[in-house]
Write a sequence for this structure.
């Protein structure tokens, strides 16, 4: 199950982040901005609890987030979305998943993970700009479920039908939120039209 957040403000920002002439400083800013829009939607069903607040005028019953949120960036490109989601939910915990996609086989290779203890009422939010073949996301979901995670949401900037189908068939209970479902994967398993190599564009490594 997936949701594409199809809003003019996101489409405008996507047109700039996709542009190959956009440098790494602007790319990072746009990744943060688009993440905030997509996460705003992805977090709409988190649990809240009523709290009594005294305003300068009167008592008010307000609502605060009650879920224990754990954001899990897939290293390295997932770090490019961390600022954006933490601006929305600054008290979230952060777990890390170290994976890279082998350039030859296109299979994910795990090199690190560090996750907070599982608690009741927890929601894990996996962030990675690119959900391409879906291999890295599925490997992360496998690790999270083995760790005990019950409720998981995936947020990406750009994906494609092939990657969504893989996540759906392996983890049908996990919803994916994205700014764009692009057309297809090319022969190098890059998303078309996509953003190119998100890690390299974020960090100026190529
Ligand atoms: C990219 C991207 C995803 C993965 C997507 O990471 O950030 O993690 O590829 O591809 P997939 O859906 O086919 O698995 P990459 O392996 O380039 O590592 P990096 O973030 O360290 O640059
Ligand atoms: N990884 C990226 O960074 N971009 C793609 O299009 C596919 C995998």
């Amino acid at each position: 199950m997936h949701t594409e957040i199809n809003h003019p403000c996101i489409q405008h920002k996507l047109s700039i982040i996709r542009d190959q002439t956009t440098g790494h400083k602007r790319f990072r800013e746009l990744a943060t901005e688009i993440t905030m829009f997509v996460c705003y939607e992805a977090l709409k069903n988190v649990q809240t609890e009523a709290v009594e607040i005294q305003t300068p005028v009167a008592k008010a019953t307000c609502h605060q987030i009650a879920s224990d949120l754990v954001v899990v960036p897939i290293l390295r490109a997932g770090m490019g979305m961390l600022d954006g989601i933490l601006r929305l939910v600054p008290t979230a915990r952060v777990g890390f998943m170290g994976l890279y996609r082998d350039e030859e086989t296109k299979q994910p290779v795990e090199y690190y993970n560090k996750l907070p203890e599982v608690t009741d009422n927890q929601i894990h939010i996996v962030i990675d700009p690119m959900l391409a073949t879906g291999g890295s996301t599925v490997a992360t979901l496998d690790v999270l479920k083995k760790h005990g995670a019950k409720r998981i949401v995936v947020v990406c900037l750009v994906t494609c039908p092939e990657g969504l189908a893989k996540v759906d068939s392996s983890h049908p209970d996990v919803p994916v939120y994205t700014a764009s479902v692009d057309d297809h994967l090319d022969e190098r398993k890059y998303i078309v039209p996509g953003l190119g190599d998100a890690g390299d564009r974020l960090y100026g490594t190529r």
Observations:
- The longest strand covers residues 151-159.
- The chain is about 30% helix and 35% strand.
